[in-house]
Design goal:
2 domains; two-stranded antiparallel sheet; binds iron/sulfur cluster; TIM Barrel; 10-stranded mixed β-sheet
Amino acid sequence: MNLLDLTKSELERFCIEHGQPKFKALQLTKWVHNKGVHDFAKMTDIQGSFRDFLSQKLNIYIPKIIQSTKSADGSEKWLFKLKSGEVIESVIIPEGSRITACVSSQVGCAVDCSFCATGNQGFSRNLSLGEMLGQVWAINYLSNVGRVTNVVLMGMGEPLLNYSNLIEFLKYLLLDEAYGLSRRKVTVSTSGIVPFIDRLRVDCPVSLAISLHAANNELRNKLVPINKKYPLEQLMRACRNYQDRAPRKFITFEVVLLDEVNDSLKDALAMSRLIKDYGVNAKFNLIPYNAYSKGVFKKPASEKIKGFQTKLQELGYVTTVRKTRGDDVEGACGQLSGIVNNRISRVGVLEKSEIAGLF
Ligand code: SF4
């Protein structure tokens, strides 16, 4: 049994069931997550006989790093091979004293956003708690960039569709004896799974980012198909409700800018109106589309991106444009992708001509 797969309460139960006080679970957590120790023999404040017992019953399994590629801008993409043989990706983004780990929550993704390389490869399975924690553990203790200061769930997968593991993962990120991050520094990015946004608000309200991409249901249905199930009206109401428990004053709205699809000044205005109409405090993060091998969209010209940003700024929103960091290692947003040989469960990827017909 992998210790990283045990929730905080499961680890406590394990200790109690084996004749140890409950606080031993926290000591173990501290050794493993806070100090990066993966050898029970080195956990000196734990009784020798219990250490021997732990080595017989538990292991600390970190997914194998099979490739680490550094981009010119300092971002690093890591490929992890899971015990199952499947491969996932994480990206490390250093920026001054901030070290952001962009982690995956699923192998592939079923949401199937039309501009996304991960969606294009289909869904295989949810990651376990240990597989999610293993990514942060490895970046913390096996990379030479330093300790992770921020975690964003923007890698492969829709985190809210792996809800129970996500919540336990977040709890470890926030726990002082584990990673000790503040709620502000942990961001769940979602395509808009409304019932789980409502649950996250109650269970573990961390920073929230919404993949918006369009201000009307007609276009959003095409770009983010889950919108057919949870249309913008429901999504915006969930965002408004989330605000009262959110650790930041605003919710981040992400827009992947696609040339001639959603990048006009009219689109910027419509997005701003939508957000105002629902009384949501927002910040925008614009992400120029990154072409990947099967992608059919185009990146807008830089003047258009600038114009879109300026319009939102004039309308009163803090608006950043994400540097396309990691581009050259296929590690930027929307490129966590199909170079990995996961099982592909979905068929019927839209061909270029079909997608062109959508607009
Ligand atoms: S953008 Fe996110 S939710 Fe959409 S298909 Fe890609 S990984 Fe899934």
